[in-house]
């Protein structure tokens, strides 16, 4: 084991979990685990769906690399448990994680801060009528996007192209979440940009231009096919990449994110105005994932990226702050 591995102590790579993204999380976690071990870190797989979290304390883990995606992993719940256990972890803290997983809450914060995001209508399970659903295309235009408010990896997402599709799209999303987000569709370029660091020190990695078949960047095309094209360095017009990078850093900071994240953006093809879609606070780390791709374009290997993220593991509340513990 090298000296860097020693300083981290015993490390748990949290993977799997109970969300709809369990399969992707296991792929991310295995990649991170192999990378950390290759760099001499005493890293071990830990699946919170199969073991109680307090095993982490009992077994002497000093840090956690969170490779969980979606609910019960990316939404502040695991972060809160680790705060109680006093074990530093990668990524955003409790509040930023819980806000960022909720696409509606994220939009409210961004709009309050004057940051651009598509118009939307929120539907809550049991609180809307069929007539209200039918009226949504008139408010947002067609096509429009329907998605669960708190799912990731494009689960439950439908691109509604005609009015007769809206009811089934809402039904598919409401099956996965109590809140459904109906969102204005922005026709143009789909891009994403990872951010590393915290506060004034947060910096953007290169922007990736995503070109999916027929514009359908769905769950299958994200993880299990090779038909989606990722252009990095991106092919945006001069000055646009820098503008997107500045916007995503602002979006990341106002939510209070730290460690790392990835912000998804649509650029209007006619006006070239970028619109913020969402921020992922525990992005994928699979062979198809975008943060490692952007890091590689910036000269950072997958292994070095994992090591850097682990080095920045921290807590919202220091065990010694305010006399705690």
UniProtKB/TrEMBL annotation:
One Pfam family it belongs to: Dala_Dala_lig_N
Domain of life: Bacteria
A GO biological-process term: cell wall organization
Domain ATP-grasp as annotated: residue spans: 107-311
Pathway: Cell wall biogenesis; peptidoglycan biosynthesis
Requisite cofactors: Mg(2+); Mn(2+)
Cell membrane listed as a keyword: no
Reaction(s) this enzyme catalyzes, per UniProt: 2 D-alanine + ATP = D-alanyl-D-alanine + ADP + phosphate + H(+)
Catalytic center residues: 21, 153, 289
Glycosyltransferase recorded as keyword: no
Record keywords: ATP-binding, Cell shape, Cell wall biogenesis/degradation, Cytoplasm, Ligase, Magnesium, Manganese, Metal-binding, Nucleotide-binding, Peptidoglycan synthesis
InterPro entries noted in UniProt: ATP-grasp (IPR011761), ATP_grasp_subdomain_1 (IPR013815), D-Ala_lig_Van_CS (IPR000291), D_ala_D_ala (IPR005905), Dala_Dala_lig_C (IPR011095), Dala_Dala_lig_N (IPR011127), PreATP-grasp_dom_sf (IPR016185)
MF-aspect GO terms: ATP binding; D-alanine-D-alanine ligase activity; metal ion binding
Residues that, per the record, bind Mg(2+) 1: 264, 278
Positions that bind Mg(2+) 2: 278, 280
Note on how the cofactor is bound: Binds 2 magnesium or manganese ions per subunit.
GO cellular component: cytosol
Major subcellular site: cytoplasm
Family: Belongs to the D-alanine--D-alanine ligase family.
Protein name per its UniProtKB record: D-alanine--D-alanine ligase
Organism ancestry: Bacteria, Pseudomonadati, Pseudomonadota, Betaproteobacteria, Burkholderiales
